[in-house]
Automatic annotation (TrEMBL):
Transmembrane segments: none annotated. Residues 202-319 form the DNA polymerase III delta subunit-like C-terminal domain. The keyword DNA-binding does not apply. The gene is holA. Signal peptide: none annotated. Residues 4-124 form the DNA polymerase III delta N-terminal domain. Coiled coil: none annotated. NCBIfam families: holA. This is DNA polymerase III subunit delta. It comes from Pseudanabaena yagii GIHE-NHR1. It catalyses: DNA(n) + a 2'-deoxyribonucleoside 5'-triphosphate = DNA(n+1) + diphosphate.
């Protein structure tokens, strides 16, 4: 299929997928002539990319036209829609076109239906940090791809240390592969701990500090996260996810539910065995506290989206959350 549409917020995985497309379709000797990247944020730039895509490649290999940061799957004028269909129907057999976007395609849009007809659509979204089961599966898959054997406790250590950072995961696994080249036994947590920086603070640690009303630790953690270039909205999203999970656990407990599988289904937890540990975390809390905390987090999200100072806004919300959990 000569048309590709990649979307999601995992910039690293998208960049790796784009590199693979370039290596597959474009002759390196003719790359300067047959590969172009256009930041197609407006219709005129999209049209420019479409015009280049219908041009046959020069010399050897194929042509690849990359239209980055496009919004065609969210909004698309009738004239551009017609041009897209015309281009898709007249692409040379040796010309490929790639669209990338951060947002999920709008299934109601005509342009999305057109892309579904002509394009290979792939999602590259970061796994939410609180979905540790899914991150563990990603670690196992990435390790298998480079023939690196890891024990279950080594996988757990990597999940805690790296979170959902796919770029760092790749770097850490490559480092472990080089340092333990030729080892046939699965690497254990004890073996990899000296090589993997496990001091990286994450938003789940921040959630735990808030849960225990530890204002000093919570403020230290949020400062560390911001120093490590973590985005305020992403910190907020992780906290919302964690508090939502805790709220579901508490609501199910208060309703009298005792079946961990039923609780896991309601809270959208992949591994029912994790419910036991979550129950321990919400001991001493009640659903009212957790609901108040979620309302604070939703207000925080709105303030961040309206451009308020990230550091001050986060610090104020963190203090308010800790006080709400202490009451």
């Amino acid at each position: 299929m000569p048309v590709y549409f990649y979307w999601g917020d995992d910039d690293y995985q998208i960049s790796q997928a784009v590199k693979k497309l370039i290596d597959t379709h474009v002759d390196p000797m003719w790359r300067d002539f047959n590969y172009v990247k256009i930041h197609a944020t407006v219709d005129l730039e999209v049209m420019d990319g479409l015009n280049q895509a219908v041009t046959s490649p020069f010399g050897m290999g194929n042509r690849l036209t990359w239209l980055a940061d496009t919004a065609i799957a969210q909004r698309c004028s009738e004239s551009l829609l017609a041009e897209l269909e015309r281009t898709f129907n007249h692409l040379p057999v040796d010309s490929y076109i790639l669209f990338t976007a951060s947002n999920k395609p709008d299934g109601r849009a005509k342009s999305t239906k057109l892309l579904q007809k002509y394009a290979q659509i792939l999602e590259f979204s970061l796994i939410p940090p609180w979905k540790t089961d899914a991150i563990a599966q990603l670690v196992k898959q990435a390790a298998t791809e480079i023939d690196l054997k890891l024990s279950s406790d080594a996988v757990d250590l990597l999940v805690d240390a790296i979170g959902n950072d796919t770029r760092r995961l790749t770097m850490e696994l490559q480092k472990l592969q080089l340092s333990h080249y030729g080892q046939t036994k699965p690497l254990t947590a004890k073996e990899i701990a000296p090589l993997v920086q496990a001091s990286a603070h994450n938003s789940l640690q921040l959630a735990s500090a808030i849960r225990t009303s530890n204002i000093s630790q919570a403020l230290t953690l949020v400062a560390e996260l911001l120093r490590n270039n973590e985005v305020g909205l992403r910190i907020c999203a992780t906290l919302v996810g964690q508090f939502r999970t805790w709220l579901w656990i508490k609501l199910m407990q208060e309703s009298g539910e005792r079946d961990d599988k039923a609780i896991a289904d309601a809270a959208e937890i992949g591994n029912p065995k994790r419910v036991y540990f979550l129950k321990q975390e919400v001991q001493g809390l009640n659903s009212q506290k957790l609901m108040r905390s979620l309302s604070i987090l939703l207000r925080l999200e709105a303030e961040l989206k309206h451009g308020k100072d990230e550091t001050a806004t986060l610090q104020t919300a963190i203090i308010e959350l800790c006080q709400a959990m202490a009451k």
